[in-house]
Design goal:
The complex is a heterodimer of chains A (181) and B (206). With 181 residues, chain A is α+β, with helices and mostly antiparallel strands. Chain A has helices at 4-48, 164-172, and strands at residues 55-56, 74-82, 88-93, 99-105, 110-115, 123-129, 141-144, 149-157, 175-178. Chain A has a 5-stranded antiparallel β-sheet. In chain A, a hairpin with a 4-residue loop joins strand 4 (99-105) and strand 5. Chain A starts with a helix and ends with a strand. The model of chain A has no long low-confidence stretch (mean pLDDT 93). By secondary structure, chain B is of the alpha+beta class. Chain B has helices at residues 2-34, 63-72, 187-192, and strands at 44-45, 51-52, 82-87, 101-106, 111-120, 135-137, 149-154, 164-167, 176-185, 200-205. Chain B starts with a helix and ends with a strand. In chain B, 41% of the residues are buried. The model of chain B has no long low-confidence stretch (mean pLDDT 91). The chains are: A alpha+beta (181), B alpha+beta (206). At the A-B interface, helix 1, strand 4, strand 5 and strand 8 of A face helix 1, helix 2, strand 5 and strand 9 of B.
């Protein structure tokens, strides 16, 4: 026979089950992008020899160890950045058939992108910094990152394999490094 | 003593219910952000078979859209810089799969550069193949006289036509998808979004 107490406990159990279900769901959805970004950052930093250093893909065509649904026509330079010790400079030359520099904050949002046609000249010089950091005396275009860590990508369009030598030379001209105080 | 035992039982019951609920939520939620059957759920339909989202990489994306993109195609450019379209079915409405051959016909798009890429829907990665090709782009793709193009998407190249080949999986019945990317599209192309005259995907033989 159903008693008030048994109905009450059943209702509490259902309420807790629904609450737990939604709390878990919200946590997973919120945490997933950060977890993915952290994994990619660690992979880039390992390949580049550390945080705030460039890693250059140097082969043309599909790379089977790349991120899901990567673009095989884009030759990428990447950097996992960590601004806790100060701003980081990224500079070099653009690539004529298509070049863009994009920045991703820790929740994976693409908060900044610029392409070669939006720049004056064929050189670029960007400083990644936190809003709280003093960049007034630094040369270069300052970009404020919403998060301490994130990822920078430079994309260069390679129409076919014959573009690769030029792209490798272009990669050589690129630097990614913390700014010495 | 009897009251204490009863309370322990109640608390244990509540913990079991919460643990089961969390486990169920974990399974359903992870599937909804990772499984090939759901990841394009929030993409919009166009006037053709292609799906579109203007929120890839965008700060305007909802939490679930952001999670799906982070897992299934991280580090996408925002629509300010690039447009992405995906096709899961051919023009007959059937799921694209490696048991069938398809002719894909498109135009010369007014975009700084564009590409069409094939991904295995199961692994969400490139398909390994003997010619190391997963895409064609606006420079590499062979053009027709009118500036348009036609390629063959199949597990094997054709012996009957000279169409450029984009390899699908060698194993039969494997689902795949095609993705169109437009980098720096012209304003007129942007104005037509999402109803750009995107490629037709005709099933030829299975």
């Amino acid at each position: 026979m159903l008693t008030f107490r048994s109905i009450l406990f059943t209702a509490i159990a259902i309420g807790l089950a629904v609450f737990t279900f939604w709390a878990t769901r919200l946590y997973i959805i919120d945490a997933a992008p950060v977890k993915v970004m952290t994994a990619i950052e660690e992979r880039i930093a390992k390949a580049a020899g550390g945080w705030n250093s460039c890693f250059h893909n140097q082969s043309y065509g599909p790379r089977y160890n790349s991120a899901r649904r990567a673009n095989p026509d884009s030759i990428i330079s990447s950097m996992a950045y960590d601004l806790t010790q100060g701003p980081v400079r990224v500079s070099g030359e653009t690539w004529p058939s298509y070049w863009s520099l994009s920045l991703y904050q820790q929740n994976s949002d693409n908060f900044f992108v610029v392409n070669d046609r939006q720049l004056t000249g064929s050189n670029f010089d960007f400083i990644l910094a936190l809003d709280s950091q003093n960049t007034l005396k630094l040369d270069g275009t300052v970009v404020i990152s919403p998060t301490e860590k994130g990822i920078m990508l430079v994309r260069r369009f390679a129409s076919n394999e014959t573009d690769m030598q030029g792209i490798l030379d272009n990669q050589e001209s690129m630097t990614c490094a913390p700014i010495d105080n | 003593m009897k009251t204490n035992s009863r309370w322990i039982l109640y608390v244990a019951g509540v913990l079991v219910v919460m643990a089961l609920s969390a486990l169920l939520s974990w399974k359903i939620t992870v599937a909804s952000i990772r499984d090939q059957n759901y990841i394009f759920d929030t993409f919009k339909k166009t006037n053709s078979i292609w799906l579109y989202s203007e929120k890839l990489g965008s700060q305007a994306a909802s939490d679930i859209e952001r999670a799906r993109v982070a897992i299934s195609g991280p580090l996408a450019l925002s629509s300010k810089e690039a447009l992405y379209f995906v096709a899961l079915v051919g023009n007959n409405g059937d799921r694209l799969n490696s048991s069938c051959d398809y002719e894909v016909t498109g135009n010369a798009y007014d975009s700084r550069w564009w590409s069409i890429t094939l991904y295995d829907s199961g692994t969400q990665h490139y398909v390994k193949n003997r010619i190391n090709r997963s895409s064609w782009n606006n420079v590499s793709i062979p053009k027709l006289v009118d500036g348009g193009w036609k390629i063959l998407v199949a597990s094997e190249p054709s012996t009957k036509t000279e169409l450029a080949w984009l390899p699908s999986q060698e194993s039969p019945e494997q689902a795949f998808e095609l993705m169109m990317r437009f980098y720096n599209p012209s304003q007129s192309l942007r104005n037509a979004v999402p109803n750009i005259d995107l490629p037709r995907i005709e099933r030829m033989a299975c």
